[in-house]
Amino acid sequence: MSDCLFCKIIGGQIPAKVVHQDEQSLGFLDIAPQAPTHVLFVPKRHITSLNEATVEDRELLGHLMFVAAKYARENGFAEAGYRQVVNCNRDGGQTVFHIHLHLLGGRSLTWPPG
Ligand code: AMP
Ligand code: ZN
Fold first, then answer.
1. Which of 58, 98, 100, 110 has a CA 20 to 30 Å removed from the CA of 3?
2. Which domains does the chain carry?
3. Of the candidates 34, 82, 33, 25, which has an alpha carbon nearest to the alpha carbon of residue 59?
4. Could you tell me the mean pLDDT of each successive run of 10 residues in the chain, 114 residues long?
5. Dihedral pair phi/psi, residue 66, rounded to 5°
6. Nearest atom within ligand 1 for CA of residue 94
7. How far, in Å, is the centroid of ligand 2 from the Cα of 49?
C-alpha cells in the first residue's frame, strides 16, 4: 500500500532499526519504546488490521507470534517474561493501519493495560 508507513519501512523508503527479517515478516524497533525492549513485528504483505485478516492469514499471524517469542528467547528475556500485543482500531489504540505485533520486555509490565 503506497501511503502506508509500515509498507514504506518494509520497502526501505523510510528508515528503521531492523532487528529481524525473514521471507514473510520484518521486526524493527518502535520509535517510542514503552519498555527496554519494544519491537514491532509486521507481515511484509499489507493487512490493515485484525478486522481485515482472513482465514488465509492465520499462518502469517501465528508466524509473527512465533518469531517474536524466538526474539525474546534469543535476547535473554523470555524466562523473565514479556508481552505481545496487537491493537485493533480506535478502542484498541491502533494508530498505524498495517497490522503489527508489539513485543514488550525488559521490565515488569502491569495489568490491566490502560
Ligand atoms: P499502534 O498504536 O498499536 O498502532 O502502534 C503503532 C506503533 O508504531 C507505536 O508504538 C509507535 O510508536 C510506532 N511507530 C510510529 N511510527 C514509527 C516509525 N517511523 N518507526 C518505528 N515505530 C513507529
Ligand atoms: Zn502497509
1. 58
2. 5-105 (3.30.428.10)
3. 25
4. 94 98 98 98 98 98 98 98 98 98 98 93
5. -65, -45
6. 4
7. 10
Identity of the residue numbered 12: G
- Write out the three cell numbers for 17: 532499526
Residues near 92 by beta carbon (within 8 Å), at least 6 away in sequence: none
C-beta of residue 20 within 8 angstroms of C-beta of residue 26: yes
* C-beta of 95 in contact with ligand 1 (< 6 A): yes
Q: Which atom of ligand 1 is nearest to the CA of 87?
A: 3
pTM metric for this prediction: 0.98
**Is there a catalytic annotation at residue 38?**
no
